[in-house]
Amino acid sequence: MSPKKQPHKRVTVLGAGSWGTVFSKVLADGGAEVTIWARRPEVARELRETHRNTQYLRGVNLPPTITATSSLRDSLRGAEQLYVAVPSQALRDNLRALKPLLPAGVPVVSLMKGIEKSTNERMTEVIADVLEIDLDRIAVASGPNLALEIAKEQPTAAVVASSSLETAHEVALAATNGYFRSFVNNDVIGTEFGGVLKNLIAVAIGIVDGVGYGENTKASIITRGLVEMTDFAVAYGAQRDTLSGLAGLGDLIATCQSPLSRNNTAGRLLGQGYALHEVVRQMDQTAEGLASVDPVLALAHARDVQMPIVEQVSRVLAGTLKPRDMAPHLTTDDEPTGERNSHDAQARTGTAFRWAFERAFGVGRDRGRGDRGPRP
Question: Which GO terms describe its molecular function (predicted)?
C-alpha cells in the first residue's frame, strides 16, 4: 500500500554533507520543499544554482524543490520541521547559534550517529539540553541508510523514534517516498544507540578486512558485536528487540559489509597499517565511530557492560594493539563461556539473532510489544 499523500511541508536540513544532502532528496521526493543550510557559501551556491553537491555527492542531480543558503536565519524561515545532519562534535555549537531563530513548535529530528565526547550525551540529549524543548518534539531517524545507494534511489527503509508517536508518525510521513520507507517506534534510546554502536563494530570489521582476514572472522565479529550492542543499549534503558530491527541489525549489516561506509573504510586503513592521524587526514568526511569509541567505553564501564570488541578497537586506535592481533580477542576470558555475555537477569533465552528470526517469521509476534506502536 502506498503511503498517504500529505500537504507539502517546508523543512530545513542543517548540514550539506553527503547524508544531509541525500536526506534532503528523500524529503523532496516525498513532496517537501527543502532548504539546506550549508556552512560554506560556495557549497550553498552550487546547491542552489546547479542542484548538485559535487564535493560530497558527485554525479547526483537533486530535485528542483531543494534550495540552499549559508544563512541560518534564512534557512529556518517558515520551517515546519528541522532535520540536523552535522558532525556530532559540532552539534552543540550549531544548536546554540540557531536556538533564537527556531520557529515555535517545530519538531527537531536528529540524523546523526554519534556521542558527544565532552559529555557522553546522545545527540537527542544534546538537542534537548541546548534547545530546551519538550522531548515530544525531538525525534531520531536511523537505519541501513548508505547515502550513495539512496541517492541512486535503491529501495531501503529507516525507523523514526520519538517519545511521541505522533511526532514520529509526522516525521515518517515526510520521510517516505517510492524508494524510502520510514517506520516508527518510541524507543529513542535503542534507536539512537543502535546507530552509534554499529559504527564501532564497522570499524572493527574494517580493521580485520584491512589485515586480510576472511568471512569467518568478520561473521564472528558481527555476531558478537550485535550482542555487545544489545547489552550496552539495554543497560541504558533500550528495548532489546529494537537492536534486532532496522536501527540495530539492519544498520549493522549495511555498514559492516559495504565499502561505502566511512567507518568501515577508516577501519580498513587502520588494518593496513596507517596510524589514526593518517586515517583522519585521508578521510574527506567524518567517520563518527572513531570519535565515539572512548565515550561508549566510558558509558559501558559505568554500567559494568563488557564490550571486548570495542575495547580492542580502542587499543588499535591508541596504537597499543597490532591490528593483526585483534581478531582472536572476541572475549575477555580464556575459559569457555556461554555464547551470550549479558548480565541482564531478565534477558530472553537465546541471541538477538534468534529474536530477529522470531519477529521476521511471526513467531511470538505480540510477545512483549506493550504499547510501543508500529514496528518495522
Answer: glycerol-3-phosphate dehydrogenase [NAD(P)+] activity
CA–chain centroid gap for 337, Å, is 31
**Burial of 17 by CB count in 10 Å (0-12 exposed, 13-18 middle, 19+ buried)?**
buried
Q: State how far the Cα of 31 lies from the Cα of 25, in Å rounded to an integer.
A: 10
> What range defines the domain where residue 337 resides?
190-360
Give catalytic residue positions: 198
Give the DSSP H or E segment for 108.
strand 108-110
Q: Which three cell numbers stand for residue 154?
A: 535503491
Which SS3 state, helix, strand or coil, does residue 25 take? helix
| Number of domains within the chain | 2
Task: Give yes or no: residues 178 and 205 share one domain.
Answer: no
Query: Are 199 and 235 found together in one domain?
Result: yes
Q: Which residues are annotated as a binding site?
A: 18-19, 39-40, 56, 113, 143, 147, 198, 251, 261-263, 288
**Ordered per-residue pLDDT tens for the chain, 376 residues:** 455 555 578 999 999 999 999 999 999 999 999 999 999 999 999 999 999 999 989 889 999 999 999 999 999 999 999 999 999 989 999 999 999 999 999 999 999 988 998 999 999 999 999 999 999 999 999 999 999 999 999 999 999 999 999 999 999 999 999 999 999 999 999 999 999 999 999 999 999 999 999 999 999 999 999 999 999 999 999 999 999 999 999 999 998 988 778 888 888 999 999 888 888 777 765 666 677 899 999 999 999 999 999 999 999 999 999 999 987 666 555 666 667 655 443 444 344 455 554 444 444 444 333 334 444 4
Binding-site annotation, residues for sn-glycerol 3-phosphate: 113, 143, 198, 251, 261-263
What is the three-class DSSP state of 182? Answer: strand
Q: Please indicate, yes or no, if residue 5 is contained in any of the structural domains.
A: no
pTM for the whole structure: 0.85
- Known binding positions for NADPH: 18-19, 39-40, 56, 113, 147, 262, 288
DSSP character string of 112-159: ---B-TTT--BHHHHHHHHH---GGGEEEEESS--HHHHHTT--EEEE
Instruction: Kindly report the CATH number assigned to the domain that includes residue 71.
Output: 3.40.50.720
Closest CA to 127 of 101, 167, 93, 159: 93
